[in-house]
Amino acid sequence: MEAVRAGELEEFAAAVLAGDGEGGLPPITPQRARAQARNPVADPEDIVLFAAYSGKRLVGYLGALPGWLRRGASLSKVNWGSTWYLHPDYRKTAAGLLMGRNFKRRLPDIVFTDLSPEAWKLIHYLGASELGSCRYYRLRLKRFPGRLKGLVCRILLPAPPAGVAVRETDRVREEAHPVIRQGAPPAEFYRGPRVVNWILEYPWVVETGRPGTDKLDYLFTHRRKLFRITANEVFGPGGEYRGYFVVSFSSTGRERTMKILDYDFLHPEDRSLVLPLALECALRARADIVNIPGELIPSAGRASLLRRLARPHDRPYLYYPWTGDSPLAKAAGEVRLNYCDGDTAFT
User: Fold this and answer.
1) Using an 8 Å Cβ cutoff, are 137 and 292 in contact?
2) Please, which residues bridge with residue 318 across strands?
């Protein structure tokens, strides 16, 4: 079992793609390696990938994504489980169990979400506890033909106040958004504008046709017909800056999905602007599906109708606290879960 650190991730990815490992699927793409090596939360010595070998053949891997846990005014590091794969020939051996145990032994304060049923069972077997569940909603605009999409959106949500303006930006304003915001929960898996800017600059997924992507045989999503992440600044009637929200657009060919991702406003009540402004983005981009963080639903003008039209999805979490009094152990009963937790926003 090889532990790969953030500072050596790009070199490791290049070596595997050059032929080291005698076959098997590559554990990470150059695009992801370049991005994860620049994660603002990760230190060069942080382990971000475990690679399992049988002889010289790479047969499995388990990724780690360092992130922040905020509890009160304190930030501590957590490790999100990501991209777990084991070759089918080794799934009836102890290899998966050894990978999971090694992950748990080497990394402090681990959190998992968006797992396959098989991975869930294994992690639970290794002693993980349930942290809770995050609810989000999926609105299928595709069911409404033509102009009915716009009509449905106007019925569900009131138009933004007169004078509110939106401007797309390459980077959000880091200095305008402190870690502790008015109305913030006691604990959360904090991302913040610095992480948002990293995601905007170094996407994990590229659009089909970009050089060096079409022939890469990688198990997880690394290219799509459409993949864009955009940040939008919001301004008040007097031109004053109010905050930002981020959306992503992706398509594999048949349907176009928009996800409402990070958002932050100088005043908590402005959160009500996110849904109507984001749905305007969805209509302009001809999105068929919109994924909506659950906490935004109460801000809708007709929340009960929106709940009936949008299908709820619950995403459970498992965690391993490093010790009984580690930051994650102390925050477990009070942390507010978020749609962007883990690697959801990256793909």
Assistant:
1) yes
2) 112, 130
Residue 20 has pLDDT above 60, yes or no: no
Q: Which residues contact 57 (CB under 8 A, 6 or more apart)?
A: 21, 22, 23, 24
The span from the CA of 82 to the CA of 343, in Å, is 7
For the chain, state the CA radius of gyration: 21
CA atoms of 226 and 147, how far apart (whole Å):
23
Query: Smallest Cα–Cα separation from 176: which of 122, 241, 80, 81?
Result: 241
User: Torsion angle of alpha carbons 182, 188, 193, 196, nearest 10°?
Assistant: -150
Q: Does residue 246 contact residue 129 with C-beta atoms inside 8 Å?
A: no
Q: What is the DSSP letter of 273?
A: G
The reply to whether the predicted model has a pTM over 0.85 is yes
pLDDT tens by residue, 70-88: 999 999 999 999 988 888 8
Q: Is 48 exposed, middle or buried, given 0-12, 13-18 or 19+ CB atoms closer than 10 A?
A: buried
| Helix (H), strand (E), coil (C) string for 106-171 | HCCCEEEECCCHHHHHHHHHCCCEEEEEEEEEEEEHHHCCCCHHHHHHHHHCCCCCCCCEEEEECC
Rounded-to-integer distance, Cα 226 and Cα 208, Å:
7
Whether the Cβ atoms of residue 200 and residue 344 lie closer than 8 Å to each other: no
Q: Yes or no: say if 231 and 203 are a contact pair by the CB < 8 Å rule.
A: no
- Smallest CA-to-CA distance from 246 within 227, 265, 255, 259 is with 259
Instruction: Count the alpha carbons within 13 Å of 213 in the hemisphere toward its beta carbon.
Output: 16
Higher pLDDT: 326 or 115? It is 326
Q: Residue 198 half-sphere exposure, CB side, CA atoms within 13 Å?
A: 18
